[in-house]
């Protein structure tokens, strides 16, 4: 509780404001508007700046997850560094309280430049320096931490300076001022958090969205200081802040004009000059390369090579044909939006129905309409026996009728990708087991055996924990097919050179080929037996199963 000052004797001079008293260290500010209007404008500025700050955080998390994978780790690193830096920034801002208006203007201009350009800078380093794997000392990872640290320092410096400014407009008890600022800050964060996934990312993309956010940040911060607190600044400070904000806006505007050319150049640096299709769906980035003039087709999803026309046949034949030994009239394919697993299933004449569950409808559309991809899958989605459902595989299985399918093919992204973890959980395989008819078989793509044996055998242990018996096997590939992280076409040395699978059933399964079915093009009984021996030689015993609440990958 603040005690009121005793009335001053007649003719005496009023006391100077003590630090923290009315007007703060520099006394009440002279405003061009009424104090009530001034407070409202400051709180509106807090609202906008908080929204921009959260967009910067989400942008760094999204870009790091896209470029490096393992979204839990990237989100933890970015957010923990930023929160730490916010605390340091708040402490450092105490030294700027006597120059609160000028300090806040400088902070917002710098934050707009750093936050607005962060996505473009990170993507440029990724595109032109290579893979983000390896030690944290690598340049791109250090740059991510540096941007997180700088953004957090600047965001943390905002509130103390705004607290000083709002107190100098009209004296208010500290608790009430903090409550007002916090309310505006949290509501702004809500708006920014919703705007990023529902507006900025789908309509503008990561690069343009960050640049626009920086421009809004610069305009609002500059207008608040130069418009509302201009009488609190020296003429030199006003000129410097105006020039700084104009320069920041010019940089952001120039980057926005060049963003399309930059994105094309960066995409060519990542994927090569063969890019034919590049689009951002509501699920992921989809890129098609080659497929014409004798060049092999490549399908990239979120930077990971999912299909290589050079050796996709090795993968898809090994995935599908061992599971088709036995009844296979009704087949369920989880994933497989490229249509290549369906192509192999349809080679068996006894198939009556194939249900494909693919989350991204744009991948299915490309598989139907792109000349190269549809030719590679032999127009599988045009077959009347094939029925496509575009939804999450986990949710679809929860509503699937029990004991329906003779074969379930899990053609899903690598288990090492965080977004796929639930699709490699004990609960997921329990749902798949329920969908199997008596005598049915489940086959799972379980990632590379040689380079990631722990992940592979964790998948096998998880399938067994769901009540199924398993038979592990693998196959080799000349080229990378499913990289755990972003896979640059210029350097595939880090990508896996083999694929691992787990065949499962209620009774003991055995990987073999159906002698009555059409023979695969490259898969043979001998290579299948060799793949089984090779997988078993890497066995890691005693691994726990992965569950929804305790993922092990």
TrEMBL record:
Subcellular location per the Swiss-Prot or TrEMBL entry: Cell membrane
Pro residues composition bias: residue spans: 1-17
Entry keywords, A to Z: Cell membrane, Membrane, Polyamine biosynthesis, Spermidine biosynthesis, Transferase, Transmembrane, Transmembrane helix
Residues covered by the PABS domain: 256-506
InterPro entries the UniProt entry points to: MFS_trans_sf, PABS, PABS_CS, SAM-dependent_MTases_sf, Spermi_synthase
Residue numbers binding S-methyl-5'-thioadenosine: 284, 358, 392-393
Keyword Transmembrane helix part of the UniProt annotation: yes
Predominant place of localization: membrane
Membrane topology: Multi-pass membrane protein
Gene3D superfamilies in UniProt: Vaccinia Virus protein VP39 (3.40.50.150)
Residue numbers spanned by region Disordered: 1-28
Enzyme class label: transferase
Enzyme Commission number(s): 2.5.1.16
Membrane-traversing stretches: 40-66, 72-92, 99-123, 143-162, 183-204, 210-229, 241-259
Catalytic activity: S-adenosyl 3-(methylsulfanyl)propylamine + putrescine = S-methyl-5'-thioadenosine + spermidine + H(+)
Chain sites annotated for binding spermidine: 316, 338
Pathway terms, separated by semicolons: Amine and polyamine biosynthesis; spermidine biosynthesis; spermidine from putrescine: step 1/1
SUPFAM superfamilies: MFS general substrate transporter, S-adenosyl-L-methionine-dependent methyltransferases
Domain of life: Bacteria
Pfam families, per database record: Spermine_synth
Active-site residues (renumbered): 411
Function in brief: Catalyzes the irreversible transfer of a propylamine group from the amino donor S-adenosylmethioninamine (decarboxy-AdoMet) to putrescine (1,4-diaminobutane) to yield spermidine.
Similarity section: Belongs to the spermidine/spermine synthase family.
Alphabetical list of NCBIfam families matching this protein: MFS_SpdSyn, PRK03612.1
Subunit structure: Homodimer or homotetramer.
Record-given protein name: Polyamine aminopropyltransferase
Species this chain originates from: Streptomyces djakartensis
């Amino acid at each position: 509780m603040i005690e009121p000052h005793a009335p001053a004797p007649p003719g005496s001079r009023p006391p100077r404001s003590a630090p923290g008293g009315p007007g703060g260290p520099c006394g009440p500010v002279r405003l061009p508007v009424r104090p009530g209007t001034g407070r409202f404008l400051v709180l509106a500025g807090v609202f906008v700046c908080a929204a921009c700050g959260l967009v910067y955080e989400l942008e760094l998390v999204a870009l790091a997850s896209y470029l490096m994978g393992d979204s839990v780790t990237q989100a933890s690193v970015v957010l923990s560094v930023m929160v730490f830096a916010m605390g340091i920034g708040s402490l450092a801002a105490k030294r700027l309280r006597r120059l609160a208006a000028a300090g806040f203007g400088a902070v917002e201009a710098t934050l707009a430049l750093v936050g607005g350009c962060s996505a473009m800078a990170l993507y440029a380093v990724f595109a032109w320096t290579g893979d983000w794997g390896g030690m944290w000392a690598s340049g791109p990872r250090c740059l991510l931490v540096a941007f997180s640290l700088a953004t957090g320092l600047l965001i943390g410096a905002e509130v103390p300076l705004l607290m000083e400014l709002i107190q100098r407009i009209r004296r208010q008890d500290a608790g009430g001022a903090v409550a007002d600022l916090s309310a505006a800050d949290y509501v702004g964060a809500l708006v920014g958090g919703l705007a990023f996934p529902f507006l900025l990312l789908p309509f503008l993309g990561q690069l343009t969205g960050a640049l626009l956010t920086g421009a809004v940040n610069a305009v609002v911060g500059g207008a608040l200081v130069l418009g509302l607190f201009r009488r609190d600044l020296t003429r030199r400070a006003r000129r410097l802040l105006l020039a700084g904000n104009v320069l920041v806006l010019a940089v952001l505007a120039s980057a926005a004009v060049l963003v399309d050319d930059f994105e094309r150049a960066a995409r060519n640096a990542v994927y090569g000059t063969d890019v034919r299709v590049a689009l951002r769906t509501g699920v992921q980035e989809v890129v098609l390369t080659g497929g014409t003039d004798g060049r092999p087709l490549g399908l990239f999803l979120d930077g990971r090579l999912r299909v290589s026309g050079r050796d996709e046949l090795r993968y898809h034949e090994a995935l599908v044909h061992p599971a088709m030994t036995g009844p296979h009239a009704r087949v369920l394919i989880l994933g497989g939006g490229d249509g290549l697993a369906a192509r192999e299933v349809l080679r068996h004449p006894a198939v009556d129905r194939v249900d494909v569950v693919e989350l991204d409808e744009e991948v299915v559309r490309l598989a139907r309409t792109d000349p190269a991809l549809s030719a590679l899958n032999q127009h599988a989605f045009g077959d009347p026996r094939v029925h496509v459902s575009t939804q999450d595989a986990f949710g679809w299985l929860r509503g699937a009728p029990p004991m329906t399918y003779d074969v379930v093919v899990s053609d899903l992204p690598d288990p090492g990708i965080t977004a796929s973890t639930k699709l490699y959980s004990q609960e997921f395989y329990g749902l798949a087991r329920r969908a199997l008819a008596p005598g049915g078989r489940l086959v799972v793509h379980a990632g590379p055996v040689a380079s990631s044996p722990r992940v592979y055998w964790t998948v096998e242990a998880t399938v067994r924990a769901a009540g199924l018996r398993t038979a592990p096997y693998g196959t080799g590939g000349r080229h990378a097919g499913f990289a755990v992280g972003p896979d640059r076409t210029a350097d595939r040395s880090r990508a896996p050179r083999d694929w691992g699978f787990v065949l499962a059933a209620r009774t003991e399964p055995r990987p073999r080929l159906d002698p009555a079915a059409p023979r695969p093009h490259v898969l043979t009984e001998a290579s299948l037996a060799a793949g089984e021996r090779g997988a078993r030689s890497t066995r890691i015993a005693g691994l726990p199963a992965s569950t929804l609440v305790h993922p092990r990958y």
